[in-house]
Specification:
The protein is α+β, with helices and mostly antiparallel strands. The protein is built from nine helices and 23 strands.
Length: 450
């Protein structure tokens, strides 16, 4: 490219969108990363990078740094997520045929700590002005009335918003690569391998395919997830959509944070139990030796890989219960101060290259678990359980693990994924039931009763 990469970031009047970022989710091709009405939404595509193989993260990092190193950046807001921004989605496996990608949008709307902004990105030589950026945003928001969300703010947290998605009564579900029985056999085989001592933990995933004759409305799916799962990070990148509860790495300046989940309990299991639901979750989830063992493996995996990049690190001594509409999780937050290595703080993509895949989505030891996954799943996970998120030119970024999600494969078909951590005490029937609990957010957002 001979033209200079230029960006203009200006404050945006938040009063014009009282619903926060979900009110901007009006197009099926929107790029999205939101949590609690904050985050980033992108429109259009200015540039794209794709890669596959074991060097995909480092190749993307080099491409991004070359793109922004001489960028002409005008930024009157100056917070993480302003200036040049790219959204990204990466394949789970280094041997996957799926192309990992970074996408640079033409327009970005951001909200953080009550502040809103607008960024226009271009390679054109014309003047960038606030009026021009606002006009460009209006053009992207100019969608047919039937496709736009209803006016007003999203429903309050915890409200039943299922009625906002049409019930897809004619929708059908099919098993994906493995039948339920075959997948349970795979779990049994995984447990047998663990008992030999070759590995401690294995994460096995399965897929199902939903056919929606009326068509898949990606924007409606994202709005539903953003409102219903406010404690998760709702993501949308190139047909990959979902709401993940797990943060692989968040980088702000020299501070890195992660949220690790391992250990799951379906909230429906509490039906008919006496006492408070959270007391039930504490007793059954936090009191389970199997669940705590699985969680400890995940924490050790992350902290061991992050340690070489850190000057200091701390994690919760005891996991906490993360309450979501469909499940409870054992969760721990990890925080690290990044070290200055040879004059540079590691970029978020360099950290991802070291951290991925964690035990939470692969198993441990990683190489043994990865090989067993390929043998037992009969499935290319594609972007499922891979990193998804965004990064800016200053080195800041937020990258979740693409869980509780799906890939829109055609105008009327969606492939959903869910996985479970398998340890020596795992039972195939219980793990199968857990996958259905994890499918539930996407099924509900598609209007399919589960």
């Amino acid at each position: 490219m001979t033209s200079t990469f230029r960006t203009l970031t200006v404050p945006l009047d938040g009063k014009s969108s009282p619903g926060g970022l979900p009110s901007f989710l009006v197009r099926d091709d929107v790029l999205c990363w939101t949590r609690r009405e904050a985050g980033l939404v992108g429109f259009g595509e200015l540039a794209r990078f794709t890669a596959a193989g074991p060097e995909r993260f480092l190749e993307a990092d080099i491409w991004w740094r070359h793109l922004v190193i001489e960028a002409d950046i005008t930024d009157s807001v100056g917070v993480p997520g302003t200036g040049p921004v790219a959204f990204g989605s990466f394949a789970f496996s280094k041997v996957s045929a799926h192309r990992s990608r970074l996408i640079v949008p033409e327009i970005v709307v951001g909200v953080r700590d009550g502040r809103a902004w607008l960024t226009q990105l271009t390679f054109d030589d014309g003047d960038l002005t606030e009026a021009g950026a606002l006009a460009a945003l209006e053009r992207w928001l100019d969608v047919p009335a039937g496709d736009a969300p209803e006016a007003g703010a999203p429903a309050e947290a915890g409200a039943d918003v299922g009625h906002s998605v049409p019930q897809a009564s004619a929708a059908t579900l099919q098993t994906g690569s493995l039948s339920e029985a075959d997948w349970m056999d795979a779990v049994e085989s995984g447990v047998a391998e663990i008992r030999t001592g070759k590995l401690q933990k294995l994460v096995l995933a399965r897929d199902i395919v939903a056919t929606v004759p009326d068509g898949v409305n990606a924007a409606a799916v994202l709005r539903e997830l953003a409102v219903r799962y406010r404690e998760c990070w709702t993501y949308g990148v190139d047909g990959l959509v979902g709401a993940t509860p797990e943060m692989l790495i968040q980088v702000e300046g020299r501070t890195a944070q992660a949220r690790v989940l391992a250990g799951t309990l379906d909230r429906r299991d509490a039906a008919g139990e006496s006492g408070l639901p959270m007391d039930y979750a504490e007793r059954v989830l936090a009191g389970s030796e199997k669940q705590r063992h699985e969680h400890e493996i995940a924490i050790q995996s992350l902290t061991t890989q992050l340690a070489p990049f850190s000057e200091a690190m701390n994690a919760h001594s005891e996991p906490f219960i993360l309450e979501l509409p469909n499940v409870w999780h054992l969760a721990s937050d990890v925080k690290a101060e990044l070290a200055d290595i040879e004059g540079h703080v590691p970029t978020c993509l360099a950290l991802i290259n070291a951290l991925h895949p964690t035990a939470a989505v692969c198993g441990t030891p990683t190489l043994v678990a990865g090989a067993l996954i390929r043998k037992l799943e009969h499935l290319d996970r594609g972007p499922y359980a891979g990193p998804v998120g965004w990064l800016d030119a200053a080195g800041n970024g937020e990258w979740g693990i693409a869980l509780r999600g799906a890939v829109i494969e055609s105008p009327d078909t969606v492939r959903l994924y869910a996985g479970c951590g398998i340890v020596e005490g795992s039972h195939p029937e219980a793990e199968l039931a857990e996958t259905w609990a994890k499918f539930r957010p996407m099924l509900e957002s598609l209007g399919i009763k589960s």
